[in-house]
Structures are given as structure tokens and as C-alpha cells.
Amino acid sequence: MNSEVSLVEEVRFSVLSRRIKIIGIVIIVALFITYLAGLFVTASYVNKDFAILNLISLIACTAMCIVSIYIRKALLSKVNSKNFINKYFSTHIISFAICETGGLFSITTNLFINSNIMYASVSVLIAIIYVFLNFPRHGDLGKLNLEKGV
Questions:
Q1: Domain ranges across the chain
Q2: Is 93 exposed, middle or buried (0-12, 13-18, 19+ CB in 10 A)?
């Protein structure tokens, strides 16, 4: 954990973080489009027998999004100068995928299986917020185990 980072590492980090942010924005757009598509499909289809699935899917979405933050932190601790590009990129993709999976599960359950617009709206907001929280930050570069002068 060096407090000083070389210029080469800063440039590598900047380029890689832009790619990761673009993928995160695409995931957010995909979540929102799926949500909008579900709003067009949803109708008065409410099955009281499946009402518990709505709550379970919202809890699952929240849990998966919270877990994605801890998985991101755990995987970032294993990044070093030799595996920086692959490991840093895959760390963020894994955390995005976990958030997206939770969000899509909750959206499909709450809009396509059993109509509950409120739970679907909350779950899409949670998923989008946690995708933003998983975006790379410039402060991450100083926390990584990068050796000086790569």
C-alpha cells in the first residue's frame, strides 16, 4: 500500500476505470429498460398465493447488492501490479453482475410474475444505487497493492 503511485499506474487506472464506468452505465440502462418493459406488461395480474415472492425478491435484491460491496472490497485486496488490469476489471464486473442479478430477479418477479409496482421500483432504485457505489474511485488507486515503478 504505497501512498505514492507512479504516472504509468495512474494512466492505466484512468483508462481502465473509464471502461468499467461505461459497462456500469450500460448495466444501469439495461435495468431501467427492463423496468420500463415490465411496466408496459404489468396489468391487474395479482395472485395472492405468490405475494410472498414479491417480498422475498426485494430482500434478495437488497442482500445481493450489499454483498456486492463486500465482494468488491475482498477482491480488490488481491490486486497487485502483475494482475492489475485483469483482476481490477473482473472485480468490478463481478460486483456489477451481482447487483444486476438481484435487480433483474426482483424486477421480473414483481412485474412479470406478480404485479407489485412499488417493490419493483424500490428494487430498481436499490440496484442502480449499488451499481453506482461499485464504480471505481480515484481513491482506490492508493489503496491497491501496487509496487512503485512498474
A1: 7-141
A2: middle
CA–CA gap between residue 36 and residue 30 (Å, rounded) = 10
- Tens of pLDDT, residue by residue over 89-132, are 999 999 999 999 999 999 999 988 888 889 999 999 999 999 99
Q: Cα(83)–Cα(75) distance, rounded to whole angstroms?
A: 12
- pLDDT class of 56 with cuts at 50, 70, 90: very high
Checking if the pLDDT of 1 tops 80, the result is: no
pTM score of the predicted model: 0.85
Cβ pair 104, 112 in contact under 8 A: no
**Among the listed residues 66, 70, 122, the one whose alpha carbon sits nearest the alpha carbon of residue 99:** 66
Helix ranges (H only) for the chain are 7-41, 51-76, 84-107, 117-133, 139-143
Q: CA neighbours within 13 Å on the CB side: how many for 134?
A: 37
Q: How far is CA 85 from the centre of its chain?
A: 19
User: Three-class SS of residue 145?
Assistant: strand
